[in-house]
Amino acid sequence: MEQGFNPNFEAIGNAFVQHYYQKFDTVDTTARTVGLQDLYDVGNSYMTFEGVQVKGRDAILQKFGSLTFKTIQRGITKSDCQPLADGSILVSVLGQLKTDEDPIQSYNHTFILRPSAQSFFIANEIF
């Protein structure tokens, strides 16, 4: 692999997907925000959620806290990961989601995980 590419991108990306959705899919909004807060950078994380863009950990967690569903069921159809030249990892997740009594909907969720110290943070996220 070329210099800068993370050779463990697949394992890191797949472990991230499992960790992220385990924390996100709780119905307790406080537990959700506490569980996800360490995944975002204070000022360098961006998220677009259904067309609304927010920047920074606090704004992202506030958006998550405003979600009104009481129950959530998720099925991941496929997750794919690619290494980026700066050591970051692109993660794409396709699946189906059901909240409360709403019909099942397909979704696409994309992340860029950027290296930071001995770990990664979500630099970019689009749902």
UniProtKB/TrEMBL annotation:
It is found in: Cytoplasm; Nucleus. Coiled coil: none annotated. Keywords: Cytoplasm, Nucleus, Protein transport, Transport. The keyword Nucleus applies. It holds the Pfam family NTF2. This is Nuclear transport factor 2. GO terms for biological process: mRNA transport; protein import into nucleus. Has a role in nuclear-cytoplasmic transport of proteins and mRNAs. Residues 12-127 form the NTF2 domain. GO terms for cellular component: cytoplasm; nuclear envelope. The keyword Transport applies.
